[in-house]
Automatic annotation (TrEMBL):
Family annotation (InterPro entries): 5peptide_repeat, Pentapeptide-BTB/POZ_domain
Sorted UniProt keywords: Signal
Name of the protein in question: Pentapeptide repeat-containing protein
Stored SUPFAM superfamilies: Pentapeptide repeat-like
Chain intervals for the UniProt region annotation (Disordered): 267-298
Signal sequence bounds: 1-32
One Pfam family linked to the record: Pentapeptide
Transmembrane segments: none
Gene3D superfamilies: E3 ubiquitin-protein ligase SopA
Bias (Pro residues) ranges: 277-298
Lineage, uppermost ranks: Bacteria, Pseudomonadati, Pseudomonadota, Alphaproteobacteria, Caulobacterales
């Protein structure tokens, strides 16, 4: 198995100097051809590869176990079905990368560039996207309960039908984002910018919207039961009705469209339903080096 790595050694020297390549779970995964922009499925990476240049690489099905790829460049790379377990991609450039169907547990994508990236049907429970650039990203069907999107730039992104229970969107720029049909119970949207965002058919029960901006946002058929609307300016929001507001928590500081009235807090008060992220798995042990070749016989 290690022989095939030695065969490709001349092509992976730049990466091997800082990256530990761990054995794959299938024989075919033991080959790597980074020079040809291809890495076989199920190759597992550990160790450090900070600021590596891996743009355009084919990394489908790769596993990143406790790996440090901070500041790495993976522009347009194919990371479909990849696994990110406790991996650090903070500050990495993943713009236009395809991460569809990938799984992220305890991973850090803080301040990463994921603009125009595809994260369709991704599991990202408890993952940090704090201050990341997710503008125009495709995040439909994202399962990101308890994830942190605080201070992220998400203009034009799509999060339709996402599972976002207990997620943090505080001080996030989500102008024009579509949250249609998403589950956002207990999510925190405080002091964020959600102008022209779509919350059609979105479940915002017990969510915290305090201090956020919603001019032009669409709330048609959204559920706001026990949602905290204190200090929120909804005067220019669209498709709000009195029935929605009667189930929410409002006060004198809540600004509403003409004809709608703030009536306090009903239904027992707001209750947050945060979600704790799972403990990330430990990084795998490094494999033992292969035995040296036998001395040639005379």
């Amino acid at each position: 198995m290690f022989g095939s790595f030695r065969t490709a050694r001349s092509r992976i020297v730049p990466l091997a100097a800082s990256l530990a390549v761990v054995a794959a779970f299938a024989p075919s995964a033991a080959s790597a051809m980074l020079g040809d922009k291809e890495v076989a499925r199920l190759v597992s990476f550990g160790g450090a590869c900070a600021k590596c240049e891996l743009s355009g690489r084919k990394l489908t099905g790769a596993q990143f176990n406790g790996a440090n790829f901070a500041g790495a460049a993976l522009v347009g790379s194919d990371l479909r079905e990849a696994r990110f377990y406790g991996a650090n991609f903070s500050g990495a450039d993943l713009s236009r990368a395809d991460l569809s169907d990938s799984q992220m547990i305890g991973a850090n994508f803080g301040s990463a560039n994921l603009s125009d990236a595809k994260l369709r049907d991704v599991e990202a429970k408890g993952v940090s996207f704090s201050s990341a650039n997710l503008s125009n990203a495709d995040l439909r069907d994202l399962r990101a309960q308890g994830a942190n999107f605080g201070r992220a730039s998400m203009g034009g992104a799509q999060l339709n039908e996402g599972e976002l229970t207990g997620a943090n969107f505080s001080k996030t720029d989500a102008r024009g984002v579509s949250f249609r049909d998403a589950s956002m119970q207990g999510a925190v949207l405080a002091h964020g910018r959600f102008e022209r965002a779509s919350f059609r058919d979105t479940n915002l029960d017990s969510a915290v919207l305090s201090g956020a901006m919603f001019a032009g946002a669409d709330f048609r058929d959204a559920s706001l039961r026990r949602a905290m609307l204190y200090g929120v300016d909804l005067s220019k929001a669209r498709n709000l009705d009195q029935d929605q507001l009667d189930e929410a928590c409002t006060d004198a500081s809540t600004k509403l469209p003409p004809g709608l009235v703030a009536r306090g807090c009903h239904g027992g008060g707001a209750r947050l339903t945060g979600w704790r992220p799972p403990t990330p798995p430990a990084a795998p042990r490094m494999p033992r080096p292969p035995a040296p070749p036998a001395e040639p016989r005379d």
